[in-house]
Design brief:
The complex is a heterodimer of chains A (75) and B (866). With 75 residues, chain A is an all-alpha fold. In chain A, 60% of the residues lie in helices and 3% in strands. The chains are: A mainly alpha (75), B alpha+beta (866). Strand 1 of chain A pairs antiparallel with strand 13 (512-516) of chain B.
Chain lengths: 75, 866
């Protein structure tokens, strides 16, 4: 079930991913590049997902349409 | 935590070094350093003109060799011999010795002589050939005139006698005269025969007619084949002419005029037998000349083919050698100790490498005098050297296109690697288009090596940015999944959170409204596909995307602002933290951070569950400024909102004076305190470069002085006039409160206004993603939707045709055009909205002396390299 707690669960997951990215980035002079890029990418993607999820969490409007064929109405 | 190695996080630590190289191995050292490409030399002879420098003579010599090589290339092009290009990825050229260069110079000298003498003789022969050909034509055509003219003697005589007779009357009409055997010589008539360019004939005729007052008889015929002018190698159509006239003087005049009109006069014998002999002779000579000509050409081509095999390598060698001498010209020469002294910038961490290279060169030369490299202290601003690799190169380029980062500040390209493609993807979010882009990017990376050789400019540009395209495509796939758009269609990946609330008497055309399937179930990833195609789709997605733009913008700007903290900390300027970063951050968060919190809060409250009316956030923000402490009825977001908003507003307003005054007054206080303690400004102390004085004693004196004051055995170099570093002595020297204050006022106004305008600027994320989505759905409905509506065989054919059209249009409009536009907008967000928060862009780029960049950037060398 996906409900409001998903945001928190997702947060925990990405924190774990970020930690993994921090510790498993290849050593060397480009380590800082790996770390910053991976963590930034993970956080950005999480942010986008969380925003989308939150926007639909307590919807203020419902979808409405009037061109549905009878066979498809219960899908 | 001092970094032990240079990372891409900030520009490499640089040091000014001084090299003492024995004069004999100067060239070898510079050669080795050029291969290394890590040192940027300063010009130590800026007071000397180009002609006064030590190695100008060598450069002249190499210029000459270069000219000879270019001459060979031109000759090869003329002869149509292809050049064997040099592929530096495969072949490496060993650094040449002076002896080899001399040999090359000599060889090219002798080759030039040989080629040019071959060329010369070829041209002479060619000229001879043309002359003979012309003569042959003259003989042939003039023979015809004579045969005809012999019949017209009477008529000619008549025209000579009678002034009224038409001068150039057509010969054909009067062919009836009988006295064929009578010779011209009896009449004292002479003639001139020759060849003239066809476009001059009219002028020639007119001039003759005017100067001789009509006392001539001219005949001409066109030569059917155009003759090649050996000087210009162009084909010129020409005419043969024969002019008959009376009297020696007139004939001499005609000859002169012919010469002045650059006509070629040939001797033709009157007697037809002699003429026949002449023709035979000419033919025989022509044959000989042609034979010799062929041989000469073969030899020339052979010679040039030989040259073409190694020409590219020679050009590269000479180009490098010239660069070496140009660099040597920057060095100062100590004639007393026969030492070259060089100064330059190099990365501090690469010093051991440079040192060992020097050592190696010295050892190889078997010199007992060691080469010395010394790090020296300087107050000059070091250059910004940002190391890149294959992946970061393109990202660094788009940052450098904006400006060169200040020495050692956070490399702005670091956040750009993710934020730029990510913000692009927010605007470009379509799964289908992203997959096509991803395939293109992957293809370019997979066939990296062969595609590198493509010289088509537009493609080369895309190829250069292939890794940017890759990251952009990957993020676009993700955002496409979030937006649930694939070519404007939605994907039903998960169960929808909505179901249609169907009335029992449902007929088609009735409006149905969705209801939540399960109060505890929400669409887990991305937008619910049930929204797709609904009447109020845009209403929902606009609200969602607008808020998302604000939140992403806030996150991006907050993140960027944090870098200013890192910068201030690195440069050890706590006043920048307390006077700029902290108040700025509080100001920004009190207004826009609060807005973001409100957006998220509003989303997370079940408004229908609580029975309250959801308030509009836009009005809330406007009222927060216009009438602080007033919340209209039914617009309350949470209890205590009034107090919180007033507090935040006051907090934000309170930051403005802090931003305005803290830094300038602190700097003034610090300056006054230093003054009080007896320190002087840096620029007020006079220091000179160790090199400025040739006098040794003076030099050591200076060194000792700095030894005392700095506690380090390094001479200070503070002498000002230098073309590569901005002369900042004035700024260093005087502390001017007014200037600092004005600067800070501008900064404050800019920062506060930018907080508002930049946040609004992020709404472009919404606008562009909306435009992209709508455009692709319009394209679908105008092409594929029509085709899919048809049935039968025609429908099938129609579908195939329409699919091709739809696919092409998708690629051109939606991927290329929309992609470029989204990229430009994302670029702006990086350059303006993000960089203005932390980056100074006050540096100057490190441009080391390197053969690699030399060969890459030289346009002339490009055509020799494969």
């Amino acid at each position: 079930m996906a409900n409001g707690w998903s945001i928190i669960i997702g947060l925990v997951v990405i924190v774990a991913m970020c930690l993994a990215a921090w510790f498993f980035s290849p050593k060397g002079e480009n380590q800082v590049l790996w770390r910053s890029s991976l963590i930034l990418a993970i956080v950005s993607c999480y942010l986008m997902w969380a925003i989308t999820f939150l926007a639909q969490l307590h919807p203020l409007i419902e979808p409405r349409r009037s061109d549905i064929r009878k066979e498809y109405i219960h899908h | 935590m001092a970094p032990t190695k240079d990372t891409p996080f900030r520009s490499a630590e640089m040091s000014m070094v001084q090299l003492y190289i024995s004069n004999e191995i100067g060239r070898e050292v510079v050669n080795a350093l050029g291969e290394l490409g890590l040192v940027q030399f300063r010009d130590l002879n800026s007071q000397l003109s180009a002609f006064q420098r030590t190695y100008t003579k060598d450069i002249r010599r190499l210029d000459n060799v270069e000219r000879q090589l270019r001459y060979f290339h031109a000759q090869m092009e003329k002869a149509g011999i292809p050049l064997r290009k040099l592929d530096l990825d495969v072949q490496t050229l060993a650094p040449p010795t002076t002896h080899e260069i001399d040999e090359l110079a000599e060889r090219s000298q002798s080759l030039e002589q040989r080629v040019s003498s071959l060329n010369e003789s070829y041209e002479t022969l060619k000229k001879r050939e043309v002359e003979l050909t012309e003569w042959r034509w003259v003989l042939r055509e003039a023979g015809g005139f004579f045969d005809r003219a012999h019949g017209n003697v009477e008529e000619i005589r008549a025209s000579v006698d009678n002034d009224d007779a038409p001068l150039l009357q057509d010969v054909e009409h009067n062919n009836s005269a009988a006295d064929v055997e009578r010779s011209f010589s009896g009449m004292n008539i002479g003639f001139v025969a020759g060849v003239i360019a066809r476009d001059r004939v009219a002028a020639f005729e007119r001039i003759l007619w005017r100067t001789l007052r009509g006392n001539l008889y001219m005949n001409q015929a066109e030569i059917p084949e155009p003759l090649i002018d050996p000087a210009t190698n162009e084909a010129v159509p020409k005419n043969v002419f024969v002019i008959f006239a009376h009297g020696k003087e007139i004939l001499a005049k005609i000859r002169k005029i012919s010469e002045s009109m650059s006509a070629d006069v040939y001797s033709v014998d009157e007697n037809s037998d002699l003429r026949r002999d002449q023709v035979h002779e000419v033919n025989a000579r022509l044959n000989d000349v042609q034979n010799v000509l062929r041989n000469t050409q073969q030899t020339l081509e052979l010679e040039l083919t030989q040259i073409s095999r190694s020409l590219a390598a020679w050009v590269v060698l000479i180009g490098k050698e010239k660069a070496v001498y140009n660099t040597l010209n920057l060095f100062s020469y100590d004639s007393a100790r026969r030492t070259l002294i060089a100064e330059g910038w190099c990365p501090k961490h690469d010093l051991p490498l440079i040192r060992s290279t020097l050592q190696e060169v010295t050892n190889r030369a078997g010199l007992s005098v060691p080469s010395i490299i010394n790090e020296i202290r300087t107050n000059k601003k070091p250059p910004t050297y940002l190391k890149t690799n294959k992946f970061t190169e393109a990202f660094q380029t788009i940052v450098n296109a904006y400006g060169t980062a200040t020495y050692q500040e956070v490399n702005p390209a670091i956040p750009v690697i993710v934020t730029f493609p990510f913000l692009f993807a927010v605007m470009f979010g379509d799964f289908g288009h992203a997959i096509i882009m991803l395939s293109a990017a992957l293809a370019m990376i997979y066939w990296e090596k062969p595609l590198k050789k493509v010289t088509f400019e537009l493609f080369a540009m895309v190829y250069y940015g292939r890794y940017i395209a890759l990251v952009m495509a990957i993020f676009s796939v993700y955002t496409g999944l979030i937006y649930n758009d694939a070519f404007s269609k939605s994907m039903t990946l998960f169960r929808s959170q909505w179901e249609w609330d169907v009335p029992p008497n449902y007929t088609e055309g009735m409006t149905v409204v969705g209801k939540l399937r399960d109060p505890n179930y929400r669409y887990p990833f991305g937008l619910d596909w049930r929204w797709h195609g609904t009447e109020n789709d845009l209403l929902f997605s606009n609200s969602y995307k607008m808020k998302m733009s604000i939140i992403l913008g806030w996150a991006h700007m907050t993140y960027s602002l944090c870098f200013s903290y890192i910068n201030a900390k690195h440069f050890k300027k706590p006043i920048d933290i307390w006077g700029n970063f902290v108040p700025g951050m509080i100001f920004f968060q009190a207004i826009f951070g609060y807005l973001v919190v409100c957006i998220i809060y509003k989303w997370s409250v079940d408004w229908f569950g609580t029975g309250a009316q959801p308030p509009g956030l836009l009005n809330m923000l406007i009222y927060m400024f216009l009438s602080p402490g007033f919340i209209p009825d039914g617009e309350q977001l949470y209890s205590g909102q009034k107090q919180v908003q007033v507090f935040l507003l006051l907090l934000a307003v309170a930051q403005v004076p802090v931003l305005l005054f803290l830094k300038p007054f602190y700097l003034r206080w610090e300056h006054n305190r230093a003054r009080a303690k007896g320190y002087r400004g840096i620029g007020e102390r006079s220091r000179v470069s160790a090199l400025d004085d040739d006098d040794d004693g003076n030099h050591h004196g200076n060194g000792r002085q700095s030894l005392e004051s700095e506690g380090e055995g390094a001479a200070m170099i503070a002498q000002g006039v230098d073309h590569d570093a901005n002369d900042e002595d004035g700024e260093h020297g005087e502390f001017e409160f007014g200037e600092v204050m004005i600067h800070q006022v501008i900064h404050t106004i800019e920062f506060c206004l930018n907080c508002v305008s930049h946040t609004a600027s992020y709404l472009r994320l919404w606008a562009l993603s909306l435009a992209h989505q709508q455009l692709s759905s319009v394209l679908w409905s105008m092409t594929m939707a029509l085709a899919l509506g048809k049935t039968g065989v025609t429908g099938a054919i129609f579908l195939v045709v329409i699919f091709a059209a739809w696919f092409c249009l998708s690629c051109i409009i939606l991927i290329i055009m929309e992609g470029v536009s989204a990229m430009l907008h994302s670029l702006r967000l990086a350059w303006v909205e993000s960089f203005s928060k932390f980056a100074e862009f006050n540096g100057w780029p490190f441009a080391p002396f390197s053969f690699g960049t030399l060969l890459e950037e030289n346009e002339e060398l490009k055509e020799y390299l494969g």
